[in-house]
Amino acid sequence: MRVFVTGATGLIGSALVAELLENGHTVLALARSDASALTAEAAGAEPLRGALADLDILRAGVAQADGVIHLAFAHDFSSTDALAKAVAEDNAALSTLGEALAGSGRPLVTVAGTPGAPGRASTEADPLMTEGPVAGRGRAVMAALGLASHGVRSTAVRLPRTVHNQGTGGFAGLLTGIARRTGVSGYPGDGAQRWPAVHALDAAVLFRVVLEQAEAGTSWHAVADEGDKVRDIAAVIGRRLGLPVESVPEATYGPLGPIFAADQPSSGTHTQRVLGWTPRHPSLLEDLENIQP
Ligand SMILES: NC(=O)c1ccc[n+]([C@@H]2O[C@H](COP(=O)([O-])OP(=O)(O)OC[C@H]3O[C@@H](n4cnc5c(N)ncnc54)[C@H](OP(=O)(O)O)[C@@H]3O)[C@@H](O)[C@H]2O)c1
Fold first, then answer.
1. Which residues contact ligand 1 via a Cβ below 6 A?
2. Does the model's pTM come out above 0.85?
């Protein structure tokens, strides 16, 4: 398949491009800068110059592709307004991609977050989160899944809080960045809340399998580790950086504070069984040992 990928130069996208090429696909990569275009080209993809806000470029990308995987997101968590702007940009981009694919039967793989389910690991059958600072992303993904009845083989890969590679990425990566800036490896509350995780190389395999095989309207969990206690994550980060490990106020995490504080383990058992997907790469706590002081 010729696959139009947004976010192809990111942590997950770069793993995905390699996975697609190794399995006989070609990649057209949205690239918002010369540097991103060079990175995409060096990885073996064909760059298409444009940003998420360039809706005509997105339509042009769809017109040249057999399928689409939408990963790009402007990760600006500096304020509630900045995050809302990124969510609005993502919503417009995803609905444009979906409309351009309508009636074609081609696949559209979207990205969502694993939901929370009080007191237990969430499953693929649980609904996406529709409250909180990134709820708009969940609603956009549900609208995209609804295109299954309009001739789009739309699917969602739900990602856990941390998709990691070489000790970086996701929420654990944000904890590491804050620890470096503040001199404390912190966690909100008592740190007993659990976050799920997956290695980016394993997530990339699942995106490919979903693109190739999954039925329209279905959702999948790219979960390898069901839930690490946040204080255990902070402990590895603190040890690697030689910093004290302690509870810090939820406000430290800005608009993401409520999400950082929530217990949200998740399961990928159904996905592993039905799609035959087996995570093979290091767990989050193992991978964090790659953090360098
Ligand atoms: N990593 C995780 O733990 C995790 C967990 C849950 C969900 N997710 C979601 O998974 C997706 C990929 O995450 P990631 O960790 O790979 O992200 P990442 O490393 O931050 O990469 C983001 C990608 O999006 C591109 N991008 C950002 N803003 C753009 C814009 N305005 N126009 C065009 N391209 C733009 C970036 O391009 P440049 O190279 O030009 O910067 C880059 O290719 C995101 O939707 C993210 O929210 C990730």
1. 7-13, 30, 32-33, 36, 51-52, 71-75, 111, 113, 159, 162-163, 169-170
2. yes
Atom of ligand 1 nearest to the CA of 197: 3
Residue nearest to ligand 1 atom 20, measured at CA = 10
Q: What integer pLDDT is reported at residue 77 of this predicted model?
A: 79
Neighbours of 273 (CB within 10 A): 9
The region that residue 119 occupies, defined by phi over 0 for left and psi between -120 and 50 for alpha, beta otherwise, is left
In angstroms, how far apart are the furthest CA atoms of the chain? 56
Using the predicted structure, report yes or no on whether residue 14 has a pLDDT greater than 90: yes
- pLDDT tens figures, 37-53: 999 999 999 999 999 99
Atom of ligand 1 nearest to the CA of 112: 7
State residue 135's pLDDT score. 87
Q: What is the pLDDT of residue 132?
A: 78
* 88-97 burial: b if 16+ Cβ within 10 Å, else e: ebbbebbebb
Compute the distance from residue 118 Cα to the ligand 1 centre, in Å: 28
What token pair was written down for 230?
């946040």
Residue 191 tokens read as: 């740190």
Q: Which residue out of 73, 85, 202 has the highest number of ligand 1 atoms within 8 Å of its CB and is therefore the one to mutate?
A: 73
DSSP code string of 137-152:
HHHHHHHHHHGGGGT-
Q: Locate 243 and state its tokens.
A: 């910093």
What does the pLDDT read at residue 78?
84
Average pLDDT score over the chain: 96
The per-residue DSSP string of 223-261 comes to -SEEEEEHHHHHHHHHHHHT--EEEE-GGGGGGGHHHHH
| pLDDT reading at 176 higher than 90 | yes
CA of 244 to the centre of ligand 1 (A): 30
For 104, other C-beta atoms within 10 Å of its C-beta total 15
| H or E segment to which residue 55 belongs | helix 55-63
